[in-house]
Amino acid sequence: MSRRGRLWAALRDRRGVAAVEFALLMPVYLLLYLGGFEVSQAVAIYRKLSDTTVELANITAQYTTMSYNDVNSVEAASAQIMAPYSTSGVAIVVSEISTDASSHATVSWSVPYNGATALTAGAAYTLPSGMVTASTSYILVKTTYTYTPSIGSAFIGSIPMTDQIYMLPRQSTSISYTG
């Protein structure tokens, strides 16, 4: 067979095409699979963080008076809600925001947990529009979590996740804090 005949025979031969296509597409499929895994993990953790925020506010709103230990016990309950995910990266702030007769909001008290920064007691606070009611107290729970992907963290780094909720006290008009 001549050179030209061998060349045409090689061009018509399709036996290795599937293997070549597989080798070219496998990295793309693997990237999509692992990316989907990481996205689903991040969404699951954010849902747990959101559930934690709501439940901590719900528990806090049922008190009429709280001590520092009460607030820390409530905040420590986050480990049960966040399970099976670690709470080592969850920072929590539980605060009470009160409005006066002219609807000016100030921080009544604020207790941080796990490295969070508390709001300054007595400082002015801006409530979301449409939520301000004169002479009312609100429980504010703010949670922050830094999610580090298990795969690809060198490329995208950590992802900060934050959630917060306002809730009215249930047993009284405000929750007194005894420190």
Features:
179 residues; two-stranded parallel sheet
How would you describe the overall organization of this protein?
Pfam families: TadE. This is Pilus assembly protein. Keywords: Membrane, Transmembrane, Transmembrane helix. There is one protein chain. This protein is of the alpha+beta class and 179 residues long. The chain has one domain. The chain is 41% helix and 24% strand. The protein has five helices and six strands, in the order ααβααβββαββ. The strands form two sheets. It has a four-stranded antiparallel sheet with strand order 3-2-4-5, covered by helices on one side. It is rod-shaped and about 100 Å long.
Radius of gyration: 27 Å
Percent of sequence in beta strands: 15-25%
By DSSP (H or I, 4+ residues per run), the number of helices equals: 5
What count of structural domains?
A: 1
Q: From the structure provided, what is the oligomeric state, counting identical versus distinct chains?
A: single chain
Percent of residues in helices comes to: 40-55%
Number of beta-strand segments: 6
- End-to-end distance: 95 Å
Determine the structural class based on helices, strands and strand pairing. Answer: alpha+beta
Biggest sheet record: 4 strands, antiparallel
- SSE arrangement, N to C: HHEHHEEEHEE
Q: What is the averaged pLDDT score? A: 89
Taking pLDDT < 50 over at least 5 consecutive residues as the criterion, the unreliable ranges are: none
Based on Cα principal axes, name the global outline: rod-shaped
Strand order of the main beta sheet, please? Answer: 3-2-4-5
